[in-house]
Amino acid sequence: MYNAYGLLIVRLSIRLGAVQNPFWSEFRIQKMTDQKKEKVISKEKAVFWLDKHGFWHNEHGKFQHKKIIDYFHTSINRDRDGYFLSQENEQFIEKVYFPHEDTALFVFNVIPGEEIVLVLNTKKQIKLDPEKLFMQNDSLYMHFGNEIIKFAEHGLLKIADLMENEDDRYFIRVKNKRYEVKRRD
Predict the structure, then answer these.
(1) What is the reported pLDDT for 25?
(2) Residue 150 burial (CB < 10 Å; 0-12/13-18/19+)?
(3) Are 51 and 152 in contact (CB under 8 A)?
(4) Domain co-membership, 75 together with 23
(5) pLDDT in tens, 78-92
(6) How far apart are CA 80 and CA 83, in angstroms?
(7) Overall number of domains in the chain
């Protein structure tokens, strides 16, 4: 029997050619409008989670294999039911909803330039909006539409040169303009 983590590992292994196709009959199947079936695993049944620092875990501890970690991050999607990992093959679309301790989106890298670009854990690149930054529990976040994105450790280190601290207040300087980073504690 495959659990949610095993399901994605096996699918990744199949994609990489490491194993033959397993049996999938134990998963709930829903019919989709484009005639592809959808296999869904609820958040309560997922055996992996994303911690408050952007690291994937399962019952055995923190994930160690970079290809699997990257694959999980780039597979993150969101719908009205929450965040899930997804992948599509010829027969079906697989969705595994997963728990996360803080948010599912993290800034992993910052690219300086005329516009400051944030690289998310999903590999998506977005522009920094200094007016949307805020601090909470000593962590830096940014609102992006209806998403909240947290700066992971490496992202914080990369943006630190733009940050200023004055009288226990934080500011960021972008294009010679200074913006206060509000606290929400």
Answers:
(1) 32
(2) buried
(3) no
(4) yes
(5) 999 999 999 888 888
(6) 9
(7) 2
